[in-house]
Amino acid sequence: MIKYPQGIKSAAVMSSASKRPVIFGDRGMTLEQEINESNIYYRNHQLAVIYKKPTPIQIVKVDYPKRSRAVIKEAYFRQASTTDYNGVYQGHYIDFEAKETRHKTSFPLSNFHEHQIQHLANCLKQQGICFVIIKFVTLQRYFVLPAEPLINFWQQAGQGGKKSLPLNFIEQNSFEIHAGYNPVLPYLEVCYRLIHSTGENHG
User: Fold this and answer.
1) 155-170 mean pLDDT
2) Fold that domain 8-55+81-196 belongs to in CATH
3) What is the pTM of this model?
């Protein structure tokens, strides 16, 4: 039996707790900033090498108001972006998207694009560790939702299902993590669980 690493419990366990833990994440940081700081910590401590993917753009027009400064006036995306982050942890390829919402009871599927869902599905076929980190800004709650239940829900939605992920679905199918300091978001502990407990019920 694999125990939860320190600092993480399943969302189902956390939702049933009578007392909410102390929250450290509400410091005016976006989810992207929190993940970027966490990645710096992980790299500095040689725990993982994970970066935000650069967005490929084609620059069309540039102005030079000063010799030392260039201002991009026109540009376009060369291709549709896939997911936000990728890298390697314990010999495993890691690929994930980061999303945040101010909704309190659900997460709109419109925040995802079909090519992102397909990209996650393709990475899963190559045995990658794939997931989405969802931040409920108003609730100050963070969830790591593995790609498989997200893909299944997306496919059902395409056949007339719900157009948003209910909070209770996210709680039942995700790992809830809590913001701290070093790292800001301990999502790597979820990667550990996904690697070492394949097929285990997250609830």
Assistant:
1) 88
2) Trna Endonuclease; Chain: A, domain 1 (3.40.1350)
3) 0.76
